[in-house]
Design brief:
Layout (H helix, E strand, L loop, with lengths): L3 H10 L4 E3 H8 L3 H13 L3 E9 L10 E8 L17 H12 L1 E2 L1 H8 L3 H14 L2 E7 L2 E6 L17
Helix pairs in contact: 1-2, 4-5, 5-6
C-alpha cells in the first residue's frame, strides 16, 4: 500500500477545515517525510492550500535545519480521483504479444522461453493469430516453424474471437 491512499482516507474522514502535519501523520499512520511529500503534491495539484509553515525548534544536541510543521486548508474535497487505479494484470497473451511484436520473426520455443509460459499457451495463441492473419509461417528452423508478424495493430494485443464448437 502506498502513502497516498491512507492520506486521502484521512482527508476524507477529517471534519475540520485545516490541519497540521502531525495530525496528518497520526491520521494516516505513516512516517513524516512520505506524508509531507504527499501533502506537497496535493498543494501543487490544487487540492490543498498551505496556510502556515511553523518551524519545530531543534532539541538539545540536534543539528541542521529545523523541521517544518505546515498547516494546510482543504480546498477540494473530492480526492478519490487521486487514488491510483490498480494496475491491470498482464495476461499470458499480453506477454506473448509483446514478444511477438518485439521479435517480428520467432519460433514458438523462443516465445515460450522468453515469456516463461507453457507450451500449450504459446501454441493456442499462435494458432489463433495465424488463423486471424496476424502472423504466418515463413520457414523452418530444424524441426520448428519460424513465424513472422504480418499485421501489427499496435501495442495492445488484438482481440480475436475464438471459434466455439456449438
Amino acid at each position: 500500500m502506498t502513502v497516498l491512499e491512507p492520506v486521502i482516507q484521512f482527508l476524507q474522514d477529517y471534519t475540520g477545515k485545516s490541519f497540521t502535519l502531525t495530525q496528518a501523520m497520526a491520521g494516516a499512520e505513516r512516517p513524516r517525510k512520505p506524508v509531507l511529500r504527499v501533502m506537497d503534491r496535493l498543494v501543487r495539484e490544487g487540492y490543498l492550500e498551505e496556510t502556515r509553515d511553523d518551524k519545530i525548534p531543534l532539541k538539545l544536541g540536534e543539528f541542521g535545519k529545523s523541521r517544518r510543521n505546515p498547516t494546510w486548508r482543504i480546498i477540494a474535497k473530492p480526492l478519490m480521483e487521486l487514488a491510483r487505479p490498480k494496475p491491470k494484470h498482464r495476461t499470458v497473451r499480453d506477454r506473448i504479444w509483446q514478444l511477438i511484436r518485439a521479435r517480428r520473426q520467432f519460433t514458438r520455443t523462443e516465445i515460450r522461453r522468453l515469456a516463461i509460459v507453457t507450451v500449450s499457451s504459446v501454441e493456442d495463441y499462435t494458432q489463433l493469430l495465424e488463423r486471424a492473419g496476424y502472423i504466418r509461417v515463413i520457414g523452418n528452423d530444424g524441426h520448428q516453424k519460424v513465424y513472422m508478424l504480418v499485421k501489427d495493430p499496435g501495442p495492445k494485443r488484438p482481440m480475436i474471437k475464438e471459434k466455439t464448437d456449438d
